[in-house]
Amino acid sequence: MWTPSSGGSSENKVPVVAAFLREASGRILLSRRPPGKARAGLWEFPGGKVKPGESPAEALRRELREELGLEASVGQELARLIHVYPDLTIELILLEAFAENYPQALEGQEWGWFRPEEIEKVPLAPADRRLWQLLYKNSL
Ligand SMILES: Nc1nc2c([nH]c(=O)n2[C@@H]2O[C@H](COP(=O)(O)OP(=O)(O)OP(=O)(O)O)[C@@H](O)[C@H]2O)c(=O)[nH]1
Questions:
Q1: 39 CB near ligand 1 (under 6 Å)
Q2: Are strands 43-44 and 28-32 parallel, antiparallel or unpaired?
Q3: What separation in angstroms does the CA of 115 have from each of 26, 29, 46, 79?
Q4: Contact 48 CB / ligand 1 (< 6 Å)
């Protein structure tokens, strides 16, 4: 598990949980930030903010159900980092997830399965680009 910090202020950081979810052929699930939201149009691992009183795993199961209609079990933590955006500072926690059904875009967002080499070329949210580099370097 890797826990680097991007350096800026990490006070009042918002915990954000995200899923590393692979289908049978090894492609990875990404979803796209919808128009009108911060980082609109960029791709990210599906997930969202951890609410007070929730564990990261509970938050991830809730987000996957709400956004993609997925029933999922959650495995180990793969990576974690702090990222400072102009509008907020997040602590992004990437958890391995295993889905029991197929995703459907319940909030109208785009999503897709990507092979690792395709992810190199996808416009990822900046925090996710860093996370991906960590994962790749450690050949997950
Ligand atoms: N879900 C998710 N958010 C990420 C990732 N990477 C990343 O920088 N973020 C940022 O973390 C924040 C998560 O907010 P969100 O909007 O997804 O979460 P939410 O639905 O629970 O909150 P909201 O109701 O305030 O929109 C956003 O600013 C988003 O850009 C990621 O891989 N997954």
A1: yes
A2: antiparallel
A3: 7, 9, 16, 19
A4: yes
Residue 38 corresponds to which amino acid?
Answer: A
Asked whether residue 9 is assigned to any structural domain, the reply reads no
127 within ligand 1 shell (Cβ under 6 A)? yes
Q: Burial level of 38, CB count in 10 A (0-12/13-18/19+)? A: exposed
Q: What's the mean per-residue pLDDT of the chain?
A: 92
CATH classification at residue 70: 3.90.79.10
Residue numbers of the domain that contains 55: 14-137
Instruction: Give tens-digit pLDDT for 66-122.
Output: 999 999 999 999 999 999 999 999 999 999 999 999 999 999 999 999 999 999 999
Q: Is residue 74 part of a domain?
A: yes
CA-to-CA distance for 109 and 57, rounded, in angstroms?
22
